[in-house]
């Protein structure tokens, strides 16, 4: 195993509860997709000790095995590698929270029972982790002291990260850290009782009639606690931090709240600190819905770019005004959080990635849009929230099951039954409500389903239900909906599959040339396919994380639909990611509507570590076909 894999294994050995992949990624400063890939190697290694990595879907992972097996693994790990990650986290924490702002090398030696050489070695390890957070270690010559240099905002974000690493650990039942757990960590780490902060916040939010989730409340508690710690060190947020106060009443109430905290914690909240708390309230809630903000900040234009991206990737049309407006409202606080460096935790992140991997992948691609507009990219938490909105767009565009209701109980009962079915089953499109005499009109149509209150003679799918639509009826209709897509042909019965496996390509240009050459030789594509791939990639990277990308071109350059799977021997840089598996989509306009659901099912495989490894191991096209044909 490599050094990072040893590091991950040490983290797992030190945890008795479930821990998320995001937490591990944050701890060692790599992407979650890297963690997923590393866990495959670690799983193989620990099996030799009779251990395994237990995975609770959507919740977290932990190391499983007998006490004896785990202890033997621990001893062997200590013998093989000297990993001191937890220690350098602790050293970083000491450097940030020290009341005198500077720390002597000798004091670190005493506190951590290390030699001077060992402390200097640890500080060297810390530097890359801090550098990515715009923080550096400054050595004060002739004084034997060190201090951290960086903006107050970056230092606070770093301290917040350290606390999150502690509080993101899950309990044995798989529940996210509660307020009690966060309170315990704050008391232990920061030596502050956060209860007055919590009580005052709840009173403030209730007075403003703001409906906050527990996650948002805990985030605010942690932010304000960190402010109190830094104010106690004489460190105010930068004087140049300024925002426009659009809601005077909210700011006034925030000021009163801060004045109460001044007395409780013996600190002074400056105007800058009050404005920062005000910004957290405004930018973490959907309170800001005024039409003036829609136009003045170009949120509609940003939403339009995201929608266009979704439409191009999936060859669909998104016209539902409610979905579009919902996206705009989400972008207002999102953009302000991005601009102000505010982190909003997403407790459902793992479940979103498991349930909506295709939407998460598309949301990840929007980072190119945010990078160009804000020179920043979204965190995985924000990508997860955005994925929910994209999922709404995709569901709206999914092919619905064309349904006719046949009822013999009269117009009133027929319409009541139809309304119940429309309300309960969003994947059914009720074309008409008819009597038995009109059945012949639909026998030759593209109708998918008859829902009827009596037995009828038809070659099409039919379900008999009670006019009252009982629970048993609902279950049978749901079962039909679940099985509907699986009755249609498999994905590669409808389109072709091509592969280029185990390549040694090192850059995008060579890769595109080879794919174009292969597809053009078999008359799948028109001239201009490669140029369109490059143009789209320059606008927005098609990487979806998990070492996977989905390049695609405009259907106008496609003669026959094909998906070309390319695997590399070594990952290549792709935007800001590394990628070693590519799914090149060349789909005609006419084929998109029929295979969109199948593509969604394919995307669900792409975040599976096992699936990814099997693709990389495949040496023949038949092996790939068995993996991807759904």
Automatic annotation (TrEMBL):
**The PTS EIIB type-2 domain, residue ranges:** 401-489
Q: Which residues form the PTS EIIA type-2 domain?
A: 490-630
Q: Which GO terms describe its molecular function?
A: protein-N(PI)-phosphohistidine-sugar phosphotransferase activity
Keywords tagged on the record: Activator, Repeat, Transcription, Transcription regulation, Transferase
Pfam families to which the protein is assigned, alphabetical:
HTH_11, Mga, PRD, PTS_EIIA_2
Which GO terms are recorded in the biological process aspect for this UniProt protein?
phosphoenolpyruvate-dependent sugar phosphotransferase system; regulation of DNA-templated transcription
Q: Domain PRD, which positions? A: 188-291, 294-400
**PANTHER family given in the database record:** CRYPTIC BETA-GLUCOSIDE BGL OPERON ANTITERMINATOR (PTHR30185), TRANSCRIPTIONAL REGULATOR MTLR (PTHR30185:SF18)
Name-wise, this protein is Transcriptional antiterminator
Q: Which organism is it from?
A: Anaerorhabdus furcosa
